[in-house]
Amino acid sequence: MKKKLTILCLLTLAFCGHVSSQTDRLHLRFVMGTRIVDQVGHGAKTSAPIRPTFKPVLGLELFSQKPVFIYFHADGALYPYYTILDKGVEVSGKDFQYDLGVGYRLEHFSIGIGHFWERIENNGAYIWSTIPYDNKQRHPQGINLFISKALGPTDIELHMETVYAPSFTGFLPGSGLYSLKLLHRFDKNWKSSKPDRLARNFSIDPIVGSRFFINRSNNILLAEVPPKIGVVPTIGFELRKTGFPISMVLEKDLWLSFNGGSPTRDIRAINSNTGLGLKHTQKIKNGRKLEFSLAYILSVDSEVIQETKGKYYYNRGIGMSVGYEAFSNTFIEFRNIYPLRGRQPFDARLITLGLFHHLQFN
After folding, report:
1. What number of helices (H) and strands (E) belong to the chain?
2. pLDDT tens digits for 84-97?
3. Which of 17, 127, 158, 337 makes a 20 to 30 Å CA pair with 297?
4. Which sequence spans correspond to the domains of the chain?
5. How far apart, in whole angstroms, are the C-alpha atoms of residue 63 and residue 313?
6. Looking at domain 2-185, does it have CATH number 2.40.160?
7. At the topology level of CATH, where does 197-358 sit?
8. Pairing label, strands 330-341, 351-358
9. Per-residue pLDDT tens digits for 194-213
10. pLDDT confidence of residue 227
11. Does this chain's domain 2-185 share its CATH topology with 197-358?
């Protein structure tokens, strides 16, 4: 903790000295998005295969009129494990990371360097520690380098990390050192006044909203009263080309059903879907828009009891959806997932009604 405070104080003093002129003022902006990594974090010893994980990102950034800014970002993920004995879900691991550093904004992109602290808890971290519950094995830290490009309201950032504690990992491929962030900075002046050709023609627009489904659960224990309607928070990003009706969409949703005070299980069920696909958007006579989407869906659903064979996403399907613009950039969407493996067709949990807002600059 002392190291964190020391680094934070040094960065703040250096930054304040850089913007000490009378005309500069310090501002604070909020950052949110997602970080795409494999599940294997730094120092997490596990035999599980590499699998894409989408970790929510929240952060704050201190900036001024100068191109230098200080950033603090936090991201995290919980990994569920389905238990056969009590037909419930347990948390088999968690992986949280905190990044603190300095960025420099150039005309068409940004670069930065910082320090990261990762906090890992899973079976592998406990088993492979040289000393039982050795914090050094589960708390790696290191240096973080990134390069960032703004496309519309979203920055796409490539991060490269190297661990120096508890041991130096170098830049070996497959060591979990590379990740991709999609971030939205809540700053109306962040968009470049002189965008290059790539920024003029392409935009990555954040999508936020929620899906709703009828919860017909067969996995109910004594005294449990599961909700009849499942509310599924959803976040996504849409890659658009200006003037082109077809776009690429990446979405992630998560629904957890909890028990309060149950002696048997705390988490009753989990339903999470990750989708990557294409969307066609067209205007209709009343000036509103219609959207038609086709996506490949990877799912985690505790209602499906089957051998996972070490795979995290053991349910797969094709998602087809249609959306109508009920309000400006706000869509009502109907989606049905046609399962390829793991579920039965026309399961009530596969049919959803959603409400989404698209954040766009143009």
Report:
1. 4, 16
2. 555 566 777 788 99
3. 158
4. 2-185, 197-358
5. 40
6. yes
7. Porin (2.40.160)
8. antiparallel
9. 778 888 889 999 999 999 99
10. 84
11. yes
